[in-house]
Write a structure and sequence with these properties.
Blueprint: H1 21-32, E1 50-54, H2 59-70, E2 78-83, H3 101-111, E3 115-121, H4 124-129, E4 139-142, E5 149-152, H5 175-191, E6 199-203, H6 212-215, E7 220-222, E8 236-240, H7 248-257, H8 264-267, H9 283-292, H10 294-307, H11 317-323, H12 333-339
Parallel strand pairs: 1-2, 1-6, 2-3, 6-8
Antiparallel strand pairs: 3-4, 4-5, 7-8
Helix pairs in contact: 2-7, 9-10, 9-11
């Protein structure tokens, strides 16, 4: 298997990335981008024509959405957008995520009276991970012109990945976030003509409290695909992280005030809602995943064995799970069934709202 070879002047970029130039250039820029792009003026929240909320189903993206409503943003200007990290919806379980997440995000949007859309890279994380002398797959995006979808990209030179994303804040090597989340959003904004009209605000839920790396994110800045001063194509797109300075308590407070039922992952004891099989998962989380989703856990273990490289680099997922203990809250057959389903069958609103078992708990997840 090809080993990464750093090239002079390209921080965090290695040989296996060079085949898909769109992805390569994105990762190179992201690894070297200075923090000087931030706007200095305060944000006028109500001055935009459309609002795109990147919705993972996690507490922070939900808090962002509810905060927009608190600010008085009209619902008909808001679109909830979910990145399906396991690829197109096939009815089969993916390698990495909670099966129920997509439908939970959709049901949440519908309950709040908001538009909902999805993007994905074909084949998701698994296809990219297993790429062997193949180009990166195209991205599927919604397309406003005819109400259908379109594929973008996927025409790069063949090259090889054959390894899991790395446990790093550098998205050039923690490629799961760049390949199946950020790049699909970029592709949508770059190719859908609706973004050429008026002002767009993209909202994401990173919080400074989550990690040292995220504490240095700008709260407000032009989006990567902003082109407001373009000579031929002009696209006005800002990026806002409204809960960047919020505490976890503030996040749960707004969710409680709206009586929103959290994603079942939190009720099963997870403190953060990344992919269920997040590469940052702790030993207790791997033990819990093995307990509540044995078939998914087995697939991850088999992929580790096939590539010859473990996620942790020192311990396999089997070894990590053996060192951990399943969360006590995970011993709930009804919640397990919901989490493992592709249909979220519970109500979004609850009368007797309770803080989920995972709140303020172990917070393993992206840095």
């Amino acid at each position: 298997m090809p080993q990464p070879v750093a090239r002079q002047g390209e921080i965090g970029v290695s040989a296996p990335y060079q085949g898909d130039m769109f992805q390569f250039e994105y990762e190179q820029e992201l690894a070297t981008l200075p923090p000087s792009r931030a706007h200095q003026e305060p944000i006028d929240v109500l001055s935009y024509d459309r609002y795109i909320v990147a919705m993972s189903g996690g507490k922070d993206s939900i808090a962002c959405l509810l905060h927009l409503l608190d600010c008085g943003v009209p619902k008909d200007r808001i679109e909830v957008h979910h990145h399906n990290v396991d690829g197109e919806e096939t009815g089969e379980d993916g390698l990495m995520d909670w099966p129920v997440t997509g439908d939970y995000c959709k049901k949440l949007s519908e309950a709040l009276g908001l538009r909902y859309s999805q993007s994905w890279r074909h084949g998701g994380i698994e296809r990219e991970l297993m790429r062997d002398n193949q180009p990166t797959a195209p991205v599927s995006i919604p397309y406003l012109v005819d109400g259908k979808r379109m594929d973008v990209g996927g025409a790069g030179k063949p090259n090889t990945r054959l390894k899991f994303p790395q446990q790093s804040a550098n998205l050039a090597v923690r490629w799961c976030s760049s390949v199946v989340k950020i790049a699909p959003m970029d592709a949508w904004i770059s190719n859908d003509p609706q973004f050429l009209d008026g002002r767009t605000l993209v909202i994401t839920g990173e919080r400074a409290e989550e990690s040292s790396a995220r504490s240095h994110y700008n709260e407000f800045e032009p989006h990567r695909k902003d082109n407001r001063n373009g000579a031929r194509v002009r696209r006005f797109v800002d990026h806002w992280r409204p809960v960047h300075k919020w505490s976890e308590q503030q996040v749960w407070d707004i969710i409680k005030r709206y009586s929103i039922r959290p994603h079942p992952g939190y009720s099963l004891g997870f403190g953060r809602l990344s992919c269920r099989c997040c590469v940052f998962a702790s030993k207790n989380q791997w033990a819990t995943i093995k307990f509540i989703a044995p078939s998914q856990f087995k697939r991850v273990a088999e992929v580790e064995a096939f590539t010859g490289l473990t996620i942790h680099r020192k311990l396999s997922v089997q070894e990590q799970a053996a060192c951990g203990t399943p969360y006590p809250a995970s011993n709930n057959p009804e919640l397990i069934a919901v989490a493992n389903s592709h249909v979220f069958s519970l109500s979004i609103f609850v009368d007797d709202w309770q803080l989920p078992a995972g709140a303020f708990g172990e917070a393993s997840g992206p840095t």
